[in-house]
Automatic annotation (TrEMBL):
Domain DRBM: 154-223
Subunit structure: Homodimer.
One Pfam family, short name: dsrm
Binding residues for Mg(2+): 40, 113, 116
Annotated function: Digests double-stranded RNA. Involved in the processing of primary rRNA transcript to yield the immediate precursors to the large and small rRNAs (23S and 16S). Processes some mRNAs, and tRNAs when they are encoded in the rRNA operon. Processes pre-crRNA and tracrRNA of type II CRISPR loci if present in the organism.
UniProt xrefs under HAMAP family: RNase_III (MF_00104)
Annotated family: Belongs to the ribonuclease III family.
GO molecular function annotations of the record: double-stranded RNA binding; metal ion binding; ribonuclease III activity; rRNA binding
Protein known as: Ribonuclease 3
Cofactor(s) it depends on: Mg(2+)
Coiled-coil region(s): none
Record PANTHER family: RIBONUCLEASE 3 (PTHR11207:SF0), RIBONUCLEASE III (PTHR11207)
Enzyme Commission designation: 3.1.26.3
């Protein structure tokens, strides 16, 4: 049996049932009678709940839309991959030889799924109150600050890299309008790439609106590709 003591130390949790951690770390490519897909399903649900509760309690002035945006920025493949890398999860996963050759240990999809599965396994064994501080400690150690500005900061840069590679151009952001009094103004911005409109979004500042619409465009590119 592998030594999971370093992983458990990073998590601040020791598994009582070692079969559970093995299942959580086993990718479907290994063709075992078990894999981590069911635990991943469970982990996704409890992560949504824990992060949702954290945001509700810590952002009392944010509305439902803002809370949803922040949660969506944390509870996704990219966010879970960051958390997985924080505990070096790639060192422990079980994958097939083919996936090993394809650098599966660094693939976002595999790391993200394994992270969800590990969290699902802890929840299954010890419940929500034990899992909650583990998740929150990981979030705090991974992100210097949790808010819309910080979490959306990479979308414009990421999109520009995509459009330069595919079209040889950069996105154009157009202000479609602004609403409300000066102290509570909201901006609406559209995004155009190579002459085509890819989306429109609102934000409390031009910067936030641009970041939000850049994310919409990135999501569309992911669907196309």
């Amino acid at each position: 049996m592998s030594d999971y003591s370093k992983l458990e130390k990073c998590l601040g949790y020791q598994f009582k049932n070692k079969d559970l951690i093995i299942e959580a770390l086993t990718h479907k490519s290994l063709k075992k009678p078990y894999n981590n897909e069911r635990l991943e399903f469970l982990g996704d649900a409890v992560l949504n709940l824990i992060v949702g509760e954290y945001l509700y309690l810590n952002f009392p002035t944010s509305n439902e839309g803002e809370l949803s945006k922040i949660r969506a920025s944390l509870v996704n493949e990219t966010g879970f991959t960051k958390l997985a890398n924080e505990i070096r999860l790639g060192d422990y996963i079980y994958i097939s030889t083919a996936e090993e050759r394809n650098k599966g240990r660094t693939k976002a999809s595999i790391l993200s799924d394994a992270f969800e599965a590990i969290m699902g396994a802890i929840y299954l064994e010890s419940g929500l109150e034990v899992l909650k501080p583990i998740i929150l400690n990981l979030l705090r150690s991974t992100y210097d600050k949790i808010n819309l500005d910080v979490l959306f900061s990479d979308y414009k840069t990421a999109l520009q890299e995509i459009t330069q590679a595919q079209f040889g151009s950069i996105p154009e952001y157009r202000i479609e309008g602004s609403y409300g009094p000066d102290h509570k103004k909201e901006f609406e911005v559209s995004i155009w790439i190579d002459g085509v409109k890819y989306g429109q979004a609102k934000g409390k500042s031009k910067k936030l609106a641009q970041q939000a619409v850049a994310k919409i465009a990135i999501d569309k590119f992911k669907e196309i590709n």
